[in-house]
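Researcher: For the annotation table, I need structure tokens for Protein COFACTOR ASSEMBLY OF COMPLEX C SUBUNIT B CCB4, chloroplastic. Please keep the output clean. Sequence:
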Amino acid sequence: MELSRSIISAPLPQPTLRPAPAPRLDRRLPFGAFSPPQPLSNVREHGCCISRALRPRQDWVEGWVRSNDTLVRSVPILAGGASLVAVLLNRAVSGIAAVADASSSQSRADILTLALSVTDILAGLVWLSIRPKSISPVVPRGIECKRVGPGVSNSALHELLWAWNSLTTATCCKSLVAVYGGNCVLQIGVAAGSPEDGNALTVDAQKFIQGSLYKSAMESKKQSYLANLALYPGRSELPFLPANTQALILQPIGDKGIAVVGGDTIRGFTSIDQAWIAMIADKLDATLSKSFNS
């Protein structure tokens, strides 16, 4: 289905420009008012200061820690080892007996210091053994498809394609399925391949509606975010999505439909993305309701 749109442009009347009055130097501006613009010579003269103010401030501490991750994780081991050696040297040089005596304040202090040193060493070993796993996008394994359901008007299709382009541009969305009024109105992006003919697997809207994912999302009327889809057994209800889909959003579209948004990154949808997708769903609900009621 192809869309065509014609734009008729007409020349607009040019507004009459009036010279701005020169600011009076003997009059003070009220608090919060804008000062008059500076001459271009002053802007060029102080251009370095302006660019420096607009430049984002870099957190050098965070950058140094990221670049020296192994050294930072080894700091507790180094501190604990140095404290342990210092206690032993102090014990040997001061002439105190090597055997700990509970009645001596020095012995009690040494025991506490040794305990803290061993704790630091163990904490450093834990830091070195446990490292955060880097999360990177994956390439969805599937087939590119674009299917439009029956009964979708040109205006509704234009709205759906706008939503798809917006999601792929601003988020990690790679697959989009919109089910409305009991039918699949749009299936676009990467879809799972059919084992029979190798084409993109068609969405069985009726089977999907009977699943627990659809029912729970429609009953709650709230967005459901599956940040790591591999951990949810309900992914078997989504055979039309690529097998390696990392994250999923189930967004109700009013009371008659739902949007399935698949991403290529674990926890790839931020809170801003989720709120934005909810607003897009409200816009699609208004458009699709008019399309199917007309």
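Researcher: And a one-line annotation?
Model: The chain has a mean pLDDT of 80.
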